[in-house]
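Shipment paperwork, digital attachment
Item: protein structure file
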Amino acid sequence: MGPVELIILVAGLAAAGIAKGISGMGLPLIATPILAGVFGARMAVTIVTIPIFAANSLLLTQGLRQRGLLRGLTPFLAASMVGTAFGTLLLAQLDQKVFAILIAAMVVIFLAGGDRLLGNDPAALRARVLGPVVCFVGGILQGTTSIASPLVGSYFHAQRLRPSDFVFVLAAMFELNSVVQLIGYSLQGLYTREVVALGLVAVVPTLLALAAGIYFRGRLDVVWFRRFIVALVVVSVINLLWRTFAT
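Attachment content:
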């Protein structure tokens, strides 16, 4: 890897870390395609799991006072973890083009009419049933590509959580999924010495940029935060469709 490639990787990880710090999502969305251009898709997905775990750990530590939010999310978290476990093993057997179209359609529905679909009461039956289904499918995406934010982010965006609550909930879910990923990929022998070394190196620019993103988030009002989330989700869906149909 030459100096130009190294600069591109560091810049990409820095951009990904800032997006993650602001919104709680976007790290694999930005970092994985950049890493894939240098190392290939399979290796890139494996490498990025290490800075993802580190970034979510920092976000959880920073928002620890909000841990009470997780009491009502046990079915969501469990469904997401099960989906991730399946994703590490089974998604290669599915029709990824059909899957990408379904994910894009669900995101459009949540962005366009998520408030009406879920209702005003998060405890309502339709929200309680739909939420775990969304998180399960998001887990499958994370288990295979590390990118669960198109679906999960749009769902919780429709819940109109406060920015700090939104980030903490996503960090908790993605952290648990990361643990499942780390175990699943380890059992498959994907963590070679090179992968681990590159992943640990990637942690440094990611966490530095993450801290900057956290700083910027504290200065965004709710309206601009929600606009940022919508923009990031839209970009993630475009990226998902492009990666699926252009390769």
